[in-house]
Specification:
The structure is a single chain. The chain has 8 helices and 8 strands. The protein is of the alpha/beta class. It has one domain: Rossmann fold. It has an 8-stranded mixed beta sheet with strand order 3-2-1-4-5-6-7-8, with helices on both faces. Helices cover 39% and strands 17% of the residues. The structure holds NADP nicotinamide-adenine-dinucleotide phosphate. The site of NADP nicotinamide-adenine-dinucleotide phosphate has 25 residues, from helix 1. NADP nicotinamide-adenine-dinucleotide phosphate binds next to helix 1.
């Protein structure tokens, strides 16, 4: 697909989710900037991914550099670091798509839904970054452990929320590149439902001893 290959900057890309996404998008042909608060940490993670994948189109950088060099910016930091990270990248992401994966978990009770007063982390992101940034939220119900294991065939579905259809579609294509099925799931306000599902999945994992439960959307035909 023309223009499908993207330059992706991952903020907090050294973590479980960020590094899993980096690997899968790298293998799919995208150019990746793994961001970190410290460049050295990012470079260490990048060296590991290069060695594992044999692909070198990935660079370890600071979060600000990832936000500057990427055309699609992916936010993968804990909720506790959400606001300070937004402040750090604000001026570098104007005019871009920001994919927010943040789940507003409240440790230690992570198996209980705990949404912020604004409704969701993604709505907070859209409010803060402003109308010149197209915030899309997704991937809340995808286990990083499954992403990191490239031999694992992913079966999950992903709810994609955001105020602009065209931005949601770009993210849907990137989600397909991960091996997942994405669904347009409405405006950024609907991200509350997807973010809340994470705690529900964590509860299901504990209760049924599952390793990374996910979701699938079905259509019942009568
Ligand atoms: N893990 C999953 O399976 C999963 C699934 C769906 C959604 N999510 C969401 O994705 C986000 C990342 O999850 P994760 O499990 O990858 O998190 P993580 O590994 O704990 O952290 C990700 C990265 O965030 C940075 N970070 C940590 N504390 C920070 C702080 N106080 N200030 C600034 N940066 C900080 C670190 O990067 P540096 O030290 O290199 O700066 C770290 O490597 C979370 O919001 C989570 O809810 C996770």
């Amino acid at each position: 697909m023309e223009n499908h290959i993207k330059m992706i900057g991952i903020i907090g890309g050294t973590g479980s989710l960020g590094s899993g996404l980096a690997q899968r998008w790298l293998v799919a042909g995208h150019t990746i900037f793994v961001g970190s608060r410290t460049r050295e940490k990012a470079c260490t993670v990048v060296d590991e991914i290069r060695a594992k994948s044999g692909i070198t189109n990935i660079t370890g950088v600071t979060n600000i550099e990832a936000a500057t060099r990427g055309e699609i910016i992916v936010l993968t930091v804990p909720f506790g670091a959400h606001q300070t990270t937004l402040e750090e990248i604000y001026e570098h992401v104007q005019g871009k798509i920001v994919l927010d994966t943040t789940v507003p978990l409240k440790p230690p009770r992570v198996a209980r839904v705990s949404l912020p007063e604004r409704g969701s982390a993604a709505a907070m992101t859209q409010d803060y970054l402003g109308e010149h940034v197209s915030v899309v939220s997704a991937l809340h119900t995808v286990s990083a452990a499954h992403l990191i294991n490239l031999d694992h065939k992913l079966n999950g579905h992903v709810l994609i929320c955001g105020n602009r259809k065209a931005s949601r579609q770009i993210i849907a294509d990137l989600i397909e590149d991960l091996g997942l099925k994405g669904w347009h799931a409405g405006s950024i306000e609907n991200s509350a439902a997807s973010e809340a599902l994470t705690s529900t999945m964590i509860f299901i994992n504990k209760f049924y001893q599952f390793k990374g439960a996910g979701i699938q959307i079905i259509s019942e035909e009568y």
